[in-house]
From TrEMBL:
Protein name: Metallo-beta-lactamase domain-containing protein
Source species of the chain: Niastella populi
InterPro entries given in the database record: RibonucZ/Hydroxyglut_hydro
SUPFAM superfamilies in the cross-refs: Metallo-hydrolase/oxidoreductase
Record Pfam families: Lactamase_B_3 (PF13483)
Amino acid sequence: MEFQILSHAGLLVKNKPGKSLICDPWLVGSSYWRSWWNYPPVSKDLINSLQPDLIYLTHIHWDHFHGDSLKRFPCNIPIIVPKGNYTRMKDDLYYLGYKNIIELKHGERFQLDAGFSITSYQFWMFLDSALLIECDGVKLLNLNDSKHMGLTLRQITRKHRPIDFVFRSHSSANERLSYEIVDEPETPVDDLDRYIKEFAQTAQATGARYAIPFASNHCHLHKDSFHFNRYIQHPLLVEAYFKKHGIQTPQVKVMLSGDRWSTETGFHISDKDWFTNRETLLAEYLQQQSESLQKFYKLEDEAVIEKQVVTEYFGQFSASLPFFIRRYFKPVQFTYVLSAGGATKYIFNINVYKGRVEELPPHTVLDHVTYPIQIHTTAFIFLRGIEFRIFSHMCIGKRVFYKVTSKRKKYMEALNLVFNAYEYDLLPIHKLFTWRSVESWTMRWREVVLYILLVKDKLIYGKLDFEKYLR
């Protein structure tokens, strides 16, 4: 067998007869409104060589479920997705024109060929999944972004041991770095070191022979997010962490786009250094993509929002929330500050409790006493969030910036959680009691136990100690 790293989270696996599977093929262009780009870039020759028999998509985030990349493959290709409580992945694939969709339940095995099978393992309320690939006697655990731990990770390792390779993310893919605490500017908003530490702990807990830093090999090129490149935890930092802490098992291997391993010849890894001189290479990459970026800047500058669209969306959103959630948001309003053409064009005050929207003049002075929760982004992104029900995606791309007071930050964090629940069919609450949802969570009972234990830890010790669930 052979596997090859394709991209940020793209993985190709082939068996000896030549049957091939691709996971999460983001191969071309950008993701999250020109913010995320594959780093290093994927060669055209590699892209053009791909003729997979099947595709597996771990979850719906665009750096894994990438429409423009999927369109490079025939519409009749089987695409396999996890079967969770919601149908969004399947529905969006139908929208893109794909009809041969296979849903795998938690722990369900799918045979691709003789000696070549996959098993899907779901995790997290807002559906993610890991994929255990068994090919010609080699076992690969593609955890990507999923945070399996405790009983959920032991379910995988006990059933499939020994595992040869584990792949997992090792850098930030959330909104934490996008916060500015205006009344406590020195307050740290994220602990960057923990991402690599959790990578190492998870890799050790799997008992794998090799650990591959994965699903974090990207960069930011949009003018609004380019500065976030300095916070990306790249694979050489992972390698250095393993060396510093004397971690020899598993053995960490830095593999980037184009690198591969086979049972016959072992590792084939390029000697190109993408990280020591990363600032210069990023400047070159930015120049190469300048035309694409300039076209997108122009598109963003021309965005127009009708207040009625905003009013209808948040009216429906509020109505979907149970009273106790709406009541939680009663003390606050959320102020969206939306730019276009290089200046503030729209300001909307959102009252989630009442489902009401107030539009303010774009020249309004936004002091942090009157407006303690401000969300700054572009009119274009805000409108896409409404049109496609993807407010939960907005913060991932680091194109949204939160300026909040220390006392109000918790409300913004809560709203982002509620957006996820709304868009992943956990709200309205009656959607939790569909047969599909009940079946999914029953099969994932270990995860439910984990959440109970985490809540107990929070109540007793005042913090969440993930480390003890990775021993």
